Amino acid sequence: MAVYTHLGAEDLADLVAAYDVGELVSAKGIAEGVSNSNWLIETSCARFILTMYERRIDLADLPYFLGLLDHLSAGGCPVPCTIHDRDGAAFRMIDGKAVALIEFLPGVSVDRPTPAQAHSVGAVLARMHLAARDFPAQRANDLGPATSAEVLKGCGEQALGLIDPGLPQSLTMAREVAERWPADLPTSTIHSDLFPDNVLMLGDEVSGLIDFYFACTDMMAYDLAVTHAAWSFAKGGTHYHEQIGVALIAGYEAVRPLAEAERSALPLLAQGACLRFVSSRAQDWIETPADALVTRKDPMDFMRRLAFYREQGATVFAASR
Amino acid sequence: MAVYTHLGAEDLADLVAAYDVGELVSAKGIAEGVSNSNWLIETSCARFILTMYERRIDLADLPYFLGLLDHLSAGGCPVPCTIHDRDGAAFRMIDGKAVALIEFLPGVSVDRPTPAQAHSVGAVLARMHLAARDFPAQRANDLGPATSAEVLKGCGEQALGLIDPGLPQSLTMAREVAERWPADLPTSTIHSDLFPDNVLMLGDEVSGLIDFYFACTDMMAYDLAVTHAAWSFAKGGTHYHEQIGVALIAGYEAVRPLAEAERSALPLLAQGACLRFVSSRAQDWIETPADALVTRKDPMDFMRRLAFYREQGATVFAASR
After folding, report:
1. pLDDT at A319
2. pLDDT digits over B219-251, tens only?
3. Which side of chain B, N or C, has fewer Cβ within a 10 Å radius?
4. Residues 6+ apart with CB under 8 A from A303
5. Confidence label for B319 from pLDDT (cuts 50, 70 and 90)
6. Cβ contact B31–A32 (<8 Å)
7. Domains in chain B and their CATH numbers?
8. Substitution target from B4, B30, B105, B291 for chain A, most A beta carbons within 10 A
9. ipTM summary value
């Protein structure tokens, strides 16, 4: 959540001149994004987000992510489009790093969503799934339950236990979920990381979905399960907000009703979603020194959500019919 | 250079509602300021910078800093004014921390100023000094050469020598400069930290002076010396850009000609300016672990500028007549 690279006014003005967007008027590095640096850029024409891809993102994937933004934006979804340079390129290189200029969208990210907001998020997620079905490019989800199991195994039972005595059991759970993971549910291009941070809202309406850098081809119901796990709990995963969960699924189904097989898979898909975050957070926890300035996210937050879905998933998702 | 506190959309909307500025439309944490958190806020009316004072700033000084912005802005200087809340207050408290809403100014900070830009900076600095002369509040400069000497003494000769063998001699130099420090030059309210970071430009013109949190009552010629030391050298202090230095002083004198006593004091004032940054950077260097994510600024950068002024200050400032 920082700007990792210094770009001076001269660098930025040179960059902006490569696009047909007017003259540079203002540029502020913004504290958004974990794996890249971002600037809010204003020109004499409009405002934009400039993203510099610092790490984690494979350059070969960039045309996929940026092309997806254009496809969804053209399909009427509230997604920022990519600005192409004067030669038509979706990204450029500065000092060996890729940068892209992206449409700026208004809106703010909520901390404590209301049911009306959750309904709007569900509906926009479904619209996105439908608009993405004819996106021609494919990208495998490399963060499924089998990967979660592998990552947790790599952490080691002892290291997991040092974080919390309840954490090592996640490995067995991940293996169980991976074995039972469905393979025949309808797919599309999914966001797969739609936390409140990645949704911009104006009042009760979604004004933007952002940060598509985990997007991939996978089951649409899995994306809904990720979003349910990300939105429907109090911080720390200690309390399930039933009204939020119900509104989210109702909003989704108002646009794209779930098939029976999708609905009955939701409890398992939600467990897989939790394990994806448990495993990546456990790995980050172990790899990040306790005194680092970066805030480590507690993997137990999603262990609590996982326990909830194991115990009450069947009831919860049946109730939201 | 980060956002130290999380403020969600709900907190921000509540805050914005305390001002007569319309509804919250967008909010981005920005990577600006070292001792406070900043957000670029957009409402249905206009854009603003929201600053949360995290540390280092004495709350008792806040009315001085915020009142100065209003005074200078009303006096026609390109300085953001403070937005007062519906009750007329210049700042509010959130969870025990003061926050202020400040006008947003366009412009970008340059890395490699041109002589035309330096001329504009000099002229605006002089305008600021003149506009601030009737600012009624006073604040002592607590970072003069006597403080530099104390800070360097506190670091200890051994610790200074571990940073660089050339650094311990700064202590003797600071004592010499403090002994010879003038007391009878004309004063005003000065910025005292006018690095390129703190100046916004549109083309060759200054569109904003920002970050007045070191402002104090002191000699105007000292502020010019600080600005000269901050602007006229290549990064690292290895090379003096004569054209920049000359243009800066010419720009200043186009608005406010220096008295003979001010001009002849400049070589010493510039040494004092360098020592102020050598001492604070040496202290930060010693107090910041080498592996911290925060970038430490090399105190030797300003030792090189100090050496330059000791050797060539008299010639340089005579030449810019």
Report:
1. 64
2. 999 999 999 999 999 999 989 999 999 999 999
3. C
4. A164, A166, A167, A170, A237, A274, A278
5. low
6. no
7. 9-103 (3.30.200.20), 115-319 (3.90.1200.10)
8. B30
9. 0.86
